[in-house]
Please model this.
Amino acid sequence: MDEASLAGPRERALAEAPVRVVSARVGLGRRLATLWSRRELLWGLVFSDIRIKYKNSALGIFWSMLSPAFTLAVYYMVFSLFLKNGIPNFVVYLFAGLVVWNMFLTAVSTATGVIVDRAALVKKVSFPREILALSNVGAAIVYFVVQIVVLVVFLAVLRHAPAWGFLWLLPVSFLALAAFSAALSVVMSAVNVYFRDMKHLIEVVLQLWFWLTPVVYSYENSIAPHLAAHGLSVLYFLNPVTLVVVTFQRVFYVTPVVHSTVTGQVLHILPTWSFDRFFLLNLALLGLSLLAFVVAEAVFGRLEGNFESEL
Amino acid sequence: MTTVIEVRDVTKQFKIHHERHQSLKERLLHPRSGSTELFNALRDVSFDVGVGETVGIVGHNGSGKSTLLKCICGVLKPSVGQIRLRGSLAALLELGAGFQPELSGRDNVYLYGAMLGLSRRTVDAVFDEIVEFSEIAPFIDTQVKFYSSGMYVRLAFAVAVNVDPDILVVDEVLAVGDERFQAKCVDRIQRFQREGRTILLVTHNADQVRALCDRAIVLDGGDLVADGPTHESLRVFRERLLDEAAEHDPEKLLGTIQIESVTTPSGSFEVRNGAGIHLDVTVSAQSAFSGNFVVEVFTRAGLLVSRSDAQGAPVNLAPGANRVAVDLPSLPLLDGVYDVNLGVVDAHGHTVVAWREGAASLQVIYDGREGGIVALGTAVTQL
Model:
C-alpha cells in the first residue's frame, strides 16, 4: 500500500482542522456552541429514554397518560364534585393547567438525579454533561405533546372550542416553559451531585410549588383580591409557571368570567387581559427564561469541574 | 509535521474526601468537618504528538496514565494547563460504558455513535461494517443486557474503530476478547497506523508498546519521566519499576546485587550469523544469594527475540565478585544490532533482584538476502 498517498490528505486536512481546547475553564460561548453541535446526541438520548421506559409494555407510551389521567380525575372529583367550586366545565380548566404543570414537574424531578444516576457514563465518556439533564426535559416535552393531543381530542369530544384568537400564545408560552424547565433542571442536576438529598428536597419544593400555581384553583377568584388589596399581585406572578398555566387556561378554557354552577354568582376565573398583553408578558417570560438558561449553563460549568471527585 | 495533540503544563488535582458529607443535611450539621486532601494525579505534564505517530503511555498503576488519557479525551478537565486537539477523536476507554443495557445492539450502536459525536447518517454508512467487525450479526437486535461480556466489548470496539477517527485513544482494551479477536484489533490498529492516523496507547504491557509504538511516554507518580524512542523509554520504565520494587522489598535484596560488566573473550561484540558468542558477566553480591539468571535479546526496534527461562539457569552467588558465563551458541539472526538485557531473579523466577537493560549490544553480520529477524534458510525447489 502506498502510505504517502493515504497519509497526505489526512495530514493536509488536519492542518486546517479547528483546534479544540480542553482546559479548566471553558467560555460560556464555547460551552453553548458545543452543546448545540451535540444536539444529535440529545435527540438520541431522549429517544432512548422513552424507548427504555416503555420497551416492555404493550401499551407503550400510553402508560405515560395513565398517571396524569388519574390525577385529573381525582382533582375533578375533589374540587368540582365534593368541594363544589362552581366553575363550569372545570375539567377543561384543570386539564389545561395540569398539562403545563406535568411537563414542568416531570422535567425537573427526573433531571435532578440524572448526573448521579448516570455516574458511570459521566466518568467514562466525554460529552457535554448537561445533555443528560436536557434529555429528561426533552422526554417531558414528548409526554407533554402526547397530552396536548389527548386534550385536543377531549375538547373535540366535548365540542368545546378554544380561543382561536389567542392560539398564537401557545408556542411562545411553551418555549418559555421549556427554557425555564431546562434552566432549573440543569442547575438542579449539578447541585444534586454535591448535595445528594437535593432529590428529596426538590420533591417537597415541587409539591409546594404546585399549590402556589393556579392549576386546581382559580387565581383571579381566590387569591387575587387579597393580594391586590396589599398591592402584591406581582408577587404571585414571580412564579414563571403561573403565567404559562394561565395562558394555557385562557386558550383552552376561553372564558375569563363565568357564572357559578352552584350559586349563579359571577366568578372571575382568569385575567381579562388582551391578546397583546398576554403576548408581551409571555415574550418577556421567554426572554427571562432564555437568560436563566444561559446563567444555568454558566453555573453548571462551574460545578462540573469537580464532578469526578464527588461522584 | 502537524501537531494534533498538544499537552501543555497539565496538572490534575483530585480532592480526596476523608469523611464525605454528601447531603445538605450533613453539611448543615457538620459545617467544618469533613477533611479533604488534594492529590496531584498529574504534575506539569507537557508533550506534543504529531500526525501519524503511535505513542505508548506506560506507567504502573496509579502513575496517572489513565488520568492523562481521560484529560485528552475530555472526560476530565485539567486543573491547570490545557490540551489542544486537532481532528476527531475516538476513545476506547472502558468499552461499552455508554451502552444502555435495555436497548438493542442496533440502538446502542447509534447511541454510542452519537456519544462519539457522529451523526445518524454517518453511522448508517458504516453500520454494516460495524456489525461485521463485531461478529454479532445474529444478535444485533437483541437487548444488550443479554450479551456476554465478550460480545459487549466487541460491539463497542467495532463502533469506535469504524468511525474514522483522526486520533484513536486506546486504554488497556486490547486485553479483551479471545486471542483471535485481539489479533484482529491489533491488525486494525496497524491499519490505522498505515493510514496516517494518530494513536495513543495506554498499557502496562511493555511488549505491546514495543510491537506497536514508535515512541513512548513514561509516567511515574504523576510526573512525565521519559519521552522518547520506545526502547529508551521502556528502559526508564523498567528502572522505575525496579526502584519501586526496592521500596517494597521485604528481604532488602535489591541493590545488593549488581551486574557490573559484560565482556567477550575477543573484546568484540560482532558476530556472524550462525556463529555463537560467549559473554563474560561479572556480578557482585553483598551476601550469598541463590537465584536464576535471565537473558533477553531485543531488536533495536524493540521486538523481543528471546527471553530465557526464568527458572532454567540457577546461579549461586557468593559475597564479592562472581563470574557468570552466558553462551549464545548459534545466532540465527539477520543483519542488525541486537540489545541484550541481563538480570538476576529469585529462585522461583518471580522477583527481579538485579537488572541491567542494554548490558551489551550485539552486531550481527549476515550476507544473505533474507528479510526479517531470523535466518530460516528457506529453500524453494521446483518439482
User: Anything to note?
Assistant: Chain B touches chain A through 52 residues (CB under 8 Å). Chain B has two domains: 3-236, 251-365. The radius of gyration of chain B is 25 Å.
